[in-house]
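Lab notebook, bench 4. We co-purified these components, and the gel suggests they stay together. Before we commit to crystallization screens, I want a quick structural picture of the whole thing.
Request: model the full complex, all chains together.
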Amino acid sequence: MVDKPTGETTEVGSFWKNLHRLKLFDYNHERIPAEPSFFLASFSRQKEECFIIKDRETFFTPAQRSQIVWKILTRTGFDEKARDKPGVHQTGIRRLLNDKTFSAAFPLHDGPYDEDDFNGEPNDRRLLYTEWAHFGNWYKKQPLWLIRRYFGDKVGLYFAWLGFYTAMLIPASVVGILCFLFGVVTVGTDYNTPSREICNETVGGKTIMCPLCGKCDLWQLQDSCTFSKLTYFFDNPATVFFAIFMAFWATSFLEFWKRKHAVISWEWDLHNYEVEEEPRPEFEAAVTTFRINPVTQTAEPYLSFWSKALRMVIVSSLVFLLLFIVAFVVVGIIIYRLVMMSLLYTPRDSTVQDKTEASDTRIEFFQDNAKIITSVTAAIINLVIVVFLHNRVYYNVAIWLTNSEYPRTQTEYEDSFTFKMFLFQFINYYSKMSNWCRRIKYSSAGDPDAPGFLTRWEQDYNLKKADQLAFETYLRLITHFYTCEQSDGHLWASIMLALIFYSAAVIQYGFVTLFVAAFPLAPFFALLNNVVEIRLDAYKWITQLRRPLAERVEDIGAWYGILQGITYTAVVTNAFVIAYTSDIIPRLVYKYTNEHGTLEGYIKNSLSVYPTNRYNYTNQQKFKDNATEICYYRGYYEQPKDNDTAPFQPTYKYYHIQAARLAFVAVFEHLAFALTGVMAFAIPDVPREISVQIQREKLLATEALYESDLAR
Amino acid sequence: MVDKPTGETTEVGSFWKNLHRLKLFDYNHERIPAEPSFFLASFSRQKEECFIIKDRETFFTPAQRSQIVWKILTRTGFDEKARDKPGVHQTGIRRLLNDKTFSAAFPLHDGPYDEDDFNGEPNDRRLLYTEWAHFGNWYKKQPLWLIRRYFGDKVGLYFAWLGFYTAMLIPASVVGILCFLFGVVTVGTDYNTPSREICNETVGGKTIMCPLCGKCDLWQLQDSCTFSKLTYFFDNPATVFFAIFMAFWATSFLEFWKRKHAVISWEWDLHNYEVEEEPRPEFEAAVTTFRINPVTQTAEPYLSFWSKALRMVIVSSLVFLLLFIVAFVVVGIIIYRLVMMSLLYTPRDSTVQDKTEASDTRIEFFQDNAKIITSVTAAIINLVIVVFLHNRVYYNVAIWLTNSEYPRTQTEYEDSFTFKMFLFQFINYYSKMSNWCRRIKYSSAGDPDAPGFLTRWEQDYNLKKADQLAFETYLRLITHFYTCEQSDGHLWASIMLALIFYSAAVIQYGFVTLFVAAFPLAPFFALLNNVVEIRLDAYKWITQLRRPLAERVEDIGAWYGILQGITYTAVVTNAFVIAYTSDIIPRLVYKYTNEHGTLEGYIKNSLSVYPTNRYNYTNQQKFKDNATEICYYRGYYEQPKDNDTAPFQPTYKYYHIQAARLAFVAVFEHLAFALTGVMAFAIPDVPREISVQIQREKLLATEALYESDLAR
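Here is the predicted assembly.
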C-alpha cells in the first residue's frame, strides 16, 4: 500500500561494500543493473493507483506471470457437462497431468539464449547466460535478483544458498590446507618420531611383523615406512585443531546463513507466505472430514489431531523399517565380503587332506583369486541394490509415504518428502563413507584389535590401491554423484528439483563436516567442486532444462533442520574419528606415562608379540630364511601362553588407552558444544540493519493506520 | 480498538478443566470470580468510546493506577527556579530518592487485611489474604489474575511461575520416592549382593581393613554393614533410570513453561512491552552521544557498537575475575582444612624425638583436638567470607558493574544484574554442594584413589555425623537460605524483589536437577518446601512488606536462560555423578567380566592390599591383638613391593573401570541430549488454542484495516 522506494537498502552491508570497492567480484552492472528496491505489498486491483506501474507489460516479473497462469490453470474446469454433477471435481491441470491427458505442463523460456532479441536488447535468458551461466564468471557474484525474476523464489533461494555455502568454504579450505601443510613440513621432525623409528634400521629394520593374511609372509616393519609418512600428512596434531575449527565453522555457517536469509527474506518479501499458503488440491480432494476454521470461521477440510498422530506413527515406523533395511544392506555387503574372504582363504587343515586332488586344485584357484572374486561379486551386488533401491524404491516409497500422511500445504509436503529422501540417502552414502574412513585409518595407524578374523581381512587389502580407490570414490561422490539422477523424468516436478540440487550440496556438506578429521583437504575439494557446480547448474538451467514452474517459498525448508542435524552430529563423529581412528591418543598416553616424556620407543611399545609356531605355513615361521620364534603386530595384548584358551588378553595399557580415548571424546564434545552454543547465542539471527528496517516499516504502517483512523 | 469479549478463552485447557470437574483445587469462585476476558488494546483518551468502561473509578486496575502515578512522579519537576537553566534536570522522584531527600517511594496497600471494609465488601488485599495467603489454601490454585491486578505483572508472573514449578515437581517427587522405595525393598535381594557380603561373617567378618587415619586402628569390613545398606537406598540401579527421567523432566519443565507462558502472555497481553519500553532515566542522563533513531527518525541517546562492546569485554573480565575469587575462596577453605589436618596429624617420627617434653605435650594436645580445631576455624573463616562476600560485596559489585554497562532499558538492566548475581550465588552454593556430594559418596561407596593424603583426610570424618550435618545443611539450603537476605533494606527496589524470590527457587531447581542422581528424594523435599513457600511468600507480601511498585514485564527475563543453562548442565553433572561417585559402573564391569555373571565376590575384588609393616603404630599392625601382615582398602592397585618408589600402581582393572565410566558418560549424555532434543523439537512452543486465537485476532485486525481503507 505504501510505495516509497526505501533508500536505506543501500546502507545494508555498506561496510563490506567499502571493502569491495574494486568491484572485481561483482557481476557486470552495465548489463545487469543493481537490484531495484521498493516497498512491496500484496497487489490488489482496486488499489492499482497505489503501485508504481511503469509498464503494464513488465509490472509483474516473468516468474510471477508464470505463477498466475499456473493458478488459473489449476482452477479451470475442463468438463462442461460434469459441472452440474455434485461431488465431481472436473477442474485443474493437475488432474489432467495425473490422468496422463497431458504429459507435462511448464512455462516456456523467454527466447533464445545464444543470440540477442531482434531489437538488439538481450532477453533475461540471454543476460543470465552471458553474465551468470558462463564459466568465465566463476569468480563473480551471482545476479540473484535476476535469477529470482526469471526462475522464481525457490530457484533464486537455492542459488543464494549455494553461493553462500561456497563462499563460506573458502576459510575452511585455507585452514585445511594449512593443516595439511603442517603435516608435510613437520613429517621429518620430532612430531613424527614414530615414522622415523619405523624407517630406522635399528627399530623398523629389526622388527619382524606377523603375516597380514592367511597365506602371507612375515614382513619387516620398515616396509611400511613410506606409508606411515603419508599417513602423517593427514593424521598429525593439527588435525585435532582442525576438527575443533570445523565445529566452529559449521556453527558459524548456520548462524550466518540465518542472517543472510533474514536479509534475503526481507529484500524479497518471503515472510508470511506459509500463513497465506492454500491447501494442496490433493488434500482438499482426499480429506472428507471438515471443521470450521477457528481463524477465518469458514469450513475447511481438516484432519483431527489423533488421525494425524496415528498417520505419523505408522509412517515413522515404516521409515525406520526402511532405514533399517538400507543399513542392513550396507552392512550385509560388508558381511558378505568378510564371509567370502574367510571361506575362500581358510588354510587347508588336516581334515581336508583326504579330499581328491581335483577339488583341491579348484579350491586353490578360488583361494588365489579370492580377492578378485569377492570384490567383483560384492561390487555387482552393491550396484544392483543401489541402482534398484535408489532410483526406484526410495523415491516411490517416499512419495507414497508422504502422500499417506496427507500434508496440508505444498510446503509441508515438500518438507516431509525431503526429510525422508534425505534420510535414505544419508544412510546409503555415509555408511559407505564411514566404512572407508575406518578402513584407511585402521590399516595405517589404528590398532587392529587382534590379529584375528576382522583384522586379517582388513589388512588384506592392498593398502595403497584401496586408498586410491577410496579417494577416487570420494571425489566422485563429491563431484558427480548427482549426475546419474538427473536423467530422472520427473524434472518438471519442483519437488524433485529441490531435492536433487540441495541434496547433492547437503550431502557434500556432510562429507566436509562429519569426517573432516580424517581428511582435512575435504573443504578445499568441496570448494573447487562448488565453483564449477554453480556455473554448471546455471548452464543446465538456462540451456538444457525446461524452465521450471516459479514457486514461492519462505525458506530452504527441511534442509535447514537437516544441516543443523549434520552440524551437531559432526561434533560427535569428529570426536570419535580422532579418538578411535587416529594415532594421537595412544601417542599422547605413551608420551605422558613414560619417564623421558618423548615419543621415542613408542612404536615398540605399541606392538604385541605372537609366537610364530602357531602358524601353519613354513614361510610364516621364517623371515628371509631365518627362523624367528616371535612376530609383532599392532595392539596391546599379552603374549599368548601355551594351551591358552583365550589367546588375546588385553594388557592394562589397552584399558588405559581406551579410557584416554573416551576422556578425549568427553572433553572434545563438551568443549565444542559449549563454545559453539555460546557462539550461536552471541550472533544475532537478524542483522541490525534489517531489524531496524523491519521496525521502521512496522512503525510507518502503524502511523498510516492511526492517520487513517483519525481521518475517519 | 476492538472491544468484543473473546468468548473462546474458556476453551483453553477445556480438556483439563473437564478432568478437574471436582473444583477441589480451584480457589473459591464465590468470593473471587473467574478472570474476565476482553480484547485488550492500548488505551487512548481520544478513543474512550471504543472501550468498555463500567465505572471510571475501577476501569484501571490498582496496579495500573500505581504505574500511572509513578510515571507522573518520575516526570514532575521539583525545582521551579532551575527550570529555565539549560542542562539542569531537576525532575523526577528517582533523583530525590537518590539524593536521600525522600527515603522511599511506594504505593500504599488498599486497606487492612484483617477486616472487611466498612461496607462489608472485602478489598482486594483482604480477598487475597483470605483466599490465597492463608495456609489452609495450600492445595488450591492461585487466583493469578487478582494477584496481577493488585501487585502488577511482575509479581503475578512470579507466582504463576512458582505455582507451575511446584505442580511440575509432583511427578518428579512420585518417581523419586518410587526409586527410593525400590532401594528399600531390594536392599536384601540379589541387587545388593555387595552389602550382603559386607555383612557376611565369611567375607566382611574376615576382611581386615586398613586404618582410616594416621592414628586409627585396623577395622573389620563388617563394621560398615549398616552404612553400606543405607547407601544402597540412594545408590541402586533405579538411580540411573531416575537420572535419565530427570533429564526428561527438566526438558519438559522448560518446554511446558514456554507453553504456559504463551497462554499467560496472551491472556495478560504481555507481548510488545519491550519494544515500547522507554530508556531508563539514568541512561538518558549518563549517555551524552546521540544519534537519529533509524526507526522513529528522532534523536535519542545512543551508545555506539564499539563503545558497548568495549564495556561488555571489561565487565565480563571483571565478572570472571570475581567468579575466580569466589571459587578460589571455596577451594581455599578446603585446602585450609587439608593443610591443618595434615600438619596436626603428622605422626611423630624419629626426627622429633629429641624435642623437649613440654612441646611434645602441646603437640599431643593439638593432635588430639585436631578435628575440632580445624572444623571450628574453617567454619569461622567460611562464615566471615560468606557473610561478607554475599551480603556486601556481591550485591555492590553487581550493581556497580551493571551500572557501568549502561543498559538502555530497565529490562536490560535487570537481566544483566540478575545474571551476574546468579553466577556469584551459583558458584558459592553449588561448589559447596558438589563438595558435599562428592564426600558422602566417596566415603561410602566410591574408591578413595589410594590410602594416601587426600583419602585419609576424607575418611577421617566421622561418617554418620558428617552425613547428618550435610543433610541438614542441604535442607536448610533448600528451605531457608533466602530468609537472611530479606532483611536487606533495598526491598523497594523491584530489582531485588525479583532477584530474591526467583533466585531461591532457581537455586532450588538447580539442586533438584544437578545432583539428583546423588539424592532421589530431592524433588520431594523441594515440593514440600514450595507448597509452604508459596503461601509464606504470599503472607509476607500481603501482610508484612510494603506494597511493591507495579511493573510491566514481558517474561521471566534472564531466569529462563539460567534455567536452560542449568538443565543442560544437569545432564552432564548427573552423568558424572553416576559414573564417578556411584558404585554402579564398577559393579557392572565386575558382573560382566567374571565367569559366573553375578555380583558375588565383588567386594573382595574391589579391595587392594597394603602391607601393615609400613604403619608406624603397633595398633595398626594388630587387629584384636592378632598380628596381621596385610590390610585391605578400596581401590584397584597393585600390592606395593619392598623398596617400591611408586607404591600405588593402578592395576588393569583400574583402567578398565575408568574406561567403562567414561563410556557410560558418553552413552548417557548422547542418549539424554538426543532424546530431550527430539522432545523439545516435538512440543510446540505455543499451545494450539492460543496460536489459533492469536491468528484470529490478527485476521480481525487486518479485516478491520481493509474495511476502514475501503471506507475512505
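Chain A touches chain B at residues 1, 8, 46, 275, 294-296, 572, 650-652, 654-656, 658-659, 661-663, 665-666, 669-670, 677, 692-693, 695-696, 699, 705, 708-712 (CB under 8 Å). Worth comparing against the SEC data before the next meeting. Chain A is about 60% helix and 5% strand.
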